[in-house]
């Protein structure tokens, strides 16, 4: 038995798969302050016997919350002499260009807790001056006296030679064993001192929080008899042990959202689609990510609190490449000073929520527009407002200023929301040189099923999948993950000057250390695999493109092949290639994956195409160009594998619904996924 | 979805948003493929779309300094060729500072006409700082040129592509005349890629919605921009406001040169009159009229609505008046290579004139200067020539409810990134000894000015050359409403023998040998409000963090601190007198 639990803002979700390959789900309330309680509640509710749990996988927002709510530890920084202000100067950029009252993100460590010690390496890693241990000792005493709970160490060029950081780590551990420490090279082996320093600082900042959280969870699980292997979901779409998660908690920062993306990749494999656009519409945002030939893209360009007006804080850890926009179900529709209709980024949230929720919300949202146009029904909400109240909100705030009817205004809100989402979808596909016609859209989250079919049509996607576990899809993704560690090492070499023996040696060393770590955790050699990449660019460029390297040792011939792949990807993404310009490797990237045994899924047999048993009635729905259509409504829970439905149709779920447009066709497959064939024709 | 001219407001809105998205896509396409740090780190470029008449529709910006310059480029192209002289596949190249280019020769503009069903419907344009365009000094811009002919290649609005056919002679000419042809031509291709993206996306938009709908949306976009501006304008206090300042030095020891503005705000106009400013000067600190207008646009946006989409409609209420041939409206063949030192006064003067009346929108003075440097030489390990061309971060002024920011690029820059120390050391083979805040305690106030920084370069071999221009060297950032002035920008050169230390605001081609050091010290911003009113807990924290000294706490803020405990020991009479 393998179970995954995912703590979200409102609900704690659980998905399990038993040894027979049967999948089950459960939900219970999230219990802030005592998150482990929600986890135990949901296990109880699922009916799973705790003693039968072999693998327990967990995703949580506790790290991102500690960061955004500034509830981490009092943290000190020890850095190279002359550079303590790097954390405050940051990169000096001002994304809000014309705002002369821009607020720069304040560093997580104030100046008096940023201390310097003499030590210096040059850019090749050669020691210029040794670590002054007396200064280090003085710094430690000062931080102790200030009541610091966690320390980050970040020295210049530690990405290429961590010797001084290791020495400092050892000394501090000796002098001050109870303090939580992070050295920058433990988290990131990439150049750029501000980004690496900030990452080390944030890791230390959340370390005590993570340790307390995981320890509590561990105790409670043990007490309940959950004694199997325990894992935490990381932002790189893989999982790691509880022990490792306490050391590098910053790796958990996006564990929930990335699990959904990963789930889409796995689901794609089940249903034979390896080119996927994963699309997750929540209450305040929509997130999307592109999966190319089954591969989830991972980058280290992640930032927290970044938006078009704020520089945010860089976190140089591998995170699944997700584009997020501020349009979701709760996004508020409003008219700006110039008379333009906008949807989001302000959200009504869960409280008061959309007008339809009947909890006092006054501002019309995407959800309200979905209700007024018949896509949702009042039954989707626990204690809804009246339809008249919803209509009135849209009428007064949107329709009247434009001189339109409430229906037209509601449709307008949906079109603007869709246009925002479409831009995000284009950002991950068309704008990176991919043709959406080669992709399948997997839509989940509360809003995914409502908007997916319309977006697919606009984007030119032929097939939409609303997964069987769409309401607990992140937990389902976690259930399907393997152990994964990404090692990214800055290694700047021109292709034509590359020392192949050195390169192969470094790669072998990275693989060996990853392999050993997993063997130590009890994995079998044959379950450990790796994928190797090179981040490459034309000499002089800054940004890189990721190219997969062959599995075997590199030879001159394989290198030439690598180069030609680089030219190709560069041309796809950026429209041109520069054959004459030298090509450079910047980073080596090795993903080490430790596969864990997962029960195989069991597709159900077909029940024929007749869906009439699930038909519950009809209601008018306002489709874009076709006006109000009397539309058949189905209950998703009563659909059987093999059932088919012609659009227009609505398939209702408890808190959402799947909208099928005229001309589209929906079918349920053997896993319970809903597959919509759009009217888009193949090339 | 739409028929005839009856376009529903949402389609219009969606097309408008699509245009903005196209602008962004063009912008990132260029940034990600450029070869030069000045483009991909400093983002010293702009790109966007105009309509067929050259009205700016959308502009992606890395720096504020180019705001609206694309319009001038396209209008210059139309003036020269006329619509009939332009064809699908054409790309025009230009950098004439006094005409369509607007800044200096290093900023090379490309313009591509976009056709739909045989008709000219729009232009894609971009303008990017090439690391090299030739001229007398490496990096092309210099602090002691006296006429434009010393500043590099001039591209007088000529065709780089003719009906899709590249003008190879021109490429060869560029290759022969610039010091790092790979960089310059690489950037050129990045620019072309950006334009092609714009052309393709605009075509898709026309195909999807029809030309008529797109045109109607464009009109709406421009009118919408104008409407937002006028509405914001009506919230400003009408009146006439004046300010004066000085450009310090032209690189030849001449100066200072007075500059002035009279800002007239009425219900529907924002007029900036710079007449009476000093005539154009011998050195390269002259700005053309286009540059001045761009700078004024920056502050116009800051005081009206900094968060809105930018297009030509937004600027309809703005008028900029100058004399001819002034330091703010130079004409051929005036040297303009460090034009930004005077151009920035377009924004600064308006800022200074209006800050006292709208302190909720404008803070005290900031470092103002780009603090640009050029360091060149040979990498001691790779033996390859290198070239650093970069701006510096410094302190910003405090405001009515905020301390000033430390270590930010000036108003003329923007989404500009400093070069990481680890990257600089690897790429250039120099050593950075220090990158820290000056924490000089200048800019005292109830709200404190933000600290400038110190960045120290040490050369590890012989034969390097350094040029820099740090305006606001002696005339420091101004305080507001009783806040004290900040400190100045300083280039400090220390020779390895220890005997010679120079502090300068401007210098050209200073030779540096092994062990020589250049310390780049930038200004702390001006303070806001009487320092004696700063709450004691903030002053104690400032001292503890080392932003102010014990003496400053006592003399400026009126608080005597016990350095042993960090506790407040005594309140001075001056502070007590304020209650």
TrEMBL record, chain A:
GO cellular component: a single term: cytosol
Residues of the Hydantoinase A/oxoprolinase domain: 196-486
PANTHER family: 5-OXOPROLINASE RELATED (PTHR11365), HYPOTHETICAL 5-OXOPROLINASE (EUROFUNG)-RELATED (PTHR11365:SF23)
GO term, biological process aspect, one: glutathione metabolic process
SUPFAM superfamilies: Actin-like ATPase domain
Organism: Paenibacillus agri
GO MF, any single term: 5-oxoprolinase (ATP-hydrolyzing) activity
Acetophenone carboxylase-like C-terminal domain segment(s): 502-671
A Pfam short name: Hydant_A_N
Domain of life: Bacteria
Hydantoinase/oxoprolinase N-terminal domain span: 2-173
Protein name: Hydantoinase/oxoprolinase family protein
From TrEMBL, chain B:
Molecular function per GO: 5-oxoprolinase (ATP-hydrolyzing) activity
Membrane-spanning ranges: none
GO biological process terms on file: glutathione metabolic process
Tree of life domain: Bacteria
Ranges of residues in domain Hydantoinase B/oxoprolinase: 8-531
GO cellular component: cytosol
PANTHER family for the chain: 5-OXOPROLINASE RELATED, HYPOTHETICAL 5-OXOPROLINASE (EUROFUNG)-RELATED
Protein name: Hydantoinase B/oxoprolinase family protein
Organism from which the protein derives: Paenibacillus agri
